[in-house]
Amino acid sequence: MKLTLKAALAASTLALIPATGMAGEIAVIVKTTNSNFWQNVNKGATAAMEGVSDHTFSFNGPASESAIADQVNLVENAINRGVAGIVLAPSDPDALTPAVKRAYEAGIPVVIVDSGLSEDAEGTYQAFLSTDNCAAGKMIAGKMIDKVGKDGKVAVMSYVAGVGSEIGRVGCFVEELGANSNLEIVGPFYSQSQMATALNQTTDILAANSDLVGIFGANEPTAIGMGRALEQAGKAGAVAAFGFDGNGDLQDFVRNGTLEATAVQGSFQMGELGVKAVMEILAGNKVESYIDTGVVLVTKDNIDAPEAQNVLY
């Protein structure tokens, strides 16, 4: 794949990269290693390294997505050991900005994946690869309206408040419902990306809102907990449920009708294209400043089709 870039960004980027930094370790640092989604990013990064002799790569992340200080420390440690480049999925847009600035000052190129950084970080990283989370949120809202109509209650099961992907994904979902229906939003509720928390929250919401018509689980562990709660409460299929991401549990929910659909990101592509982008930068080549890794709405009708199988994991 040929990657291209904005010239001004490239010039400032490449001027910072020392000659000794052209080869070496590429540190891939994600939000948590305890998730199939992020392990699929790891698979993509591994694929990008096939046949590469100039670089090695490491894969790290904290125990949970809410362990933000631990992720900051992983980035700081990578800078301190002089890695050649970093692929980072920031858990918090503000907390990770100082560390990325430090990498920039050290001449280490950084490629951001999945979630964005704060505006203060602008110009300190070289590319951003992600799903268009706002577009994805709007798409799911449209499908929700198509399924349940324009009146009733819809619960929003989110993950970590303020994360870049969550702001776009959940914010645009809620905005789209508000602009195109009279649906009442219950929540959002934040699971901290913990499946058990999402299960308990959903159980409580179902008990307190017998008239609920729809529910949205906005990332993998949240949607899994939500789906299990729906099944345990005997509400699977009775409440229109939409998920996000595409591991085996969520695929099973789609197949058995617990989920109407799940929106699946190109997690493998984030890892593969993120590492390739760093290697292109280190080689003095140009990369796009933004690369859309896409999203596919997986339903019972298309789950076995190539378009879905290429992104499920």
From TrEMBL:
PANTHER family listed in its UniProt record: D-ALLOSE-BINDING PERIPLASMIC PROTEIN-RELATED
GO cellular component terms, semicolon-separated: cell envelope
Annotated protein name in UniProt: Substrate-binding domain-containing protein
Domain of life: Bacteria
Localization per record: Cell envelope
Keyword Signal (UniProt): yes
The family this protein is said to belong to: Belongs to the bacterial solute-binding protein 2 family.
